[in-house]
Amino acid sequence: MVSLVLPLGLLLLAAGPSPERYDVVIRGGRVMDPETGLDGIRDVGLRGDRIARISSEPLAGTRVLDARGLVVAPGFVDLHQHHHDAETYRLKAKDGVTTALDLEIGAPDVARFLDEHRGRSLLNHGTSASHPARRVALLGAPQPEGALVPPAGPATAGALTADQVRHLRDALGAELDAGGLGIGMGLAYTPGATRGEVIEMFRLAAERRVPVFTHVRSTGPKEPGSSIESVSEVIGAAAVTGASLHIVHMNSSGAKDSPACLALVEGARARGLDVTTEAYPYGAGMTAVNSAVFDPGWQEKLGLDYADLELPETGERLTRERFEALHASPDPRLILIHTNPDAIVDAVILHPLVMVASDGVRLHPRNAGTYARVLSRYVRSQQSLTLMDALRKMSLMPARRLETATAAARRKGRLQEGADADVVVFDPATVADRATYRSPAEPSVGVRFLLVSGTVVVEEGRVVEGVFPGRALVSEGRSAP
Ligand SMILES: [Zn+2]
User: Fold this and answer.
1) ω before 341 within 30° of 0 (cis)?
2) pTM for this one?
3) Ligand 1 centroid to 64 CA: how many Å?
4) Residue 20 alpha carbon to ligand 1 centre in Å
5) CA 331 to ligand 1 centroid distance, Å
6) H-type helices in 57-119, by residue range?
């Protein structure tokens, strides 16, 4: 009897569903991958930190997450996140973000940033080598602890000697060796940086095959110093050095000339330059009131007045007296800047070259709501963006931007076998941002599950306690051959 039963049992196993058991199976969701165009009902099997199998047949898993009726997509890759504290990461997880990178300004010390996050991070993370922080440190006025940008002063306004430019280059080279994913340049915050200094930093980026991420020098329609001139400067630096260039927050840097600035990016790309850009879906910007952005003449330059500036905690609009007191203070207080009407923001977000990045800071709703807002406003309400195009802007495009800096980025932003198991599972009918200017820390709703490196960090809409699966994304530090 036994000898008859045993072969039958083996036969049944071989003929039935795959006997393989995955660590986690995401069951029956609408699986979408912006690179291959896959858009269908599938089971996704995860093993360890990778996506092992995507199947039309049911998969067996030690743990099964029910995704029926939900969208299963690559976790969002945010190229532009300033605050990296635990509470911010929880908000970003509920917004669908699995990787949060500080690339515009960059952490003042790459090694320290990586140390602080090792084994303690909900999300994948990384930073650029910070041109502004290294520049002010070189000039003896280090960026204050906790400040996102250096305060305006001699170290931001003054020009460097040729010798100092060489030292700055070496300092940034060391930050790239430590794992910086590119060179972060906030030119609006270091107006003393000459064109020559900028080109030298681009040269370093080209040699190391990492991108330059830049907040361009100036904003507004007024010449000299217009948005168009500022975008032209960095495109020129990319052209003459061969560096890859990523222009941050085109919405706030281009303001009402954003469409014209996007045409410059299109033109540069059409001539073979590697130039990309990003935007966040809000009309107001935010920065430190004591930064060089508000150096004398800002009203005429930006086409704004005191009443366009707002204290986020209270909603108080500024007057001249109030502004001057705040601008002169050493306190790096963040203020809202009401720059753009909805029509400009919408045009920028919908442009096919524009990827989504949050520019997240704690007192602005973009910190908590950027990604859900794109899904609710553009995909569901306006129906101006297809779901697949929205996912592309939030996952695949930012991952590709990082691929010259690190091959690890080729496993991000994709829902494919072999990709990293960074996955967002959301309800397309309800996903929405809740954060507002008055209440910027309201978490988004509709993200049912979020997985980082195969670990569930959001379960049934709630952040899981005590898990720290986030890993560092670092450059490979190689030099061009
Ligand atoms: Zn910026």
Assistant:
1) no
2) 0.94
3) 41
4) 48
5) 18
6) 86-94, 110-117
pLDDT in tens, 146-203: 899 999 999 999 999 999 999 999 999 999 999 999 999 999 999 999 999 999 999 9
Is residue 186 within a helix (H) or strand (E), and if so which, with residue range? strand 183-186
Tokens of 439: 């209440």
Q: CA 478 → CA 109, 243, 459, distances in Å?
A: 19, 14, 39
Distance CA 294, CA 316 (A): 18
Q: Where are the beta strands (DSSP E) in 295-429?
A: 309-310, 334-338, 354-356, 423-426
Check if the beta carbon of residue 141 is closer than 8 Å to that of residue 222: no
Residues with Cβ within 8 Å of 89's Cβ and at least 6 positions away in sequence, in order, are: 100, 121, 122, 123, 470
* CA gap 143, 108 in Å, rounded: 8
CA 440 / ligand 1 centre spacing (Å):
18
What's the rounded Cα separation, in Å, for the pair 474 and 470? 13
Distance CA 414, CA 36 (A): 9
Is the CB of residue 246 less than 8 Å from the CB of residue 276? yes
Place of tokens 């709630």: 462
Q: Are 131 and 103 in contact (CB under 8 A)?
A: no
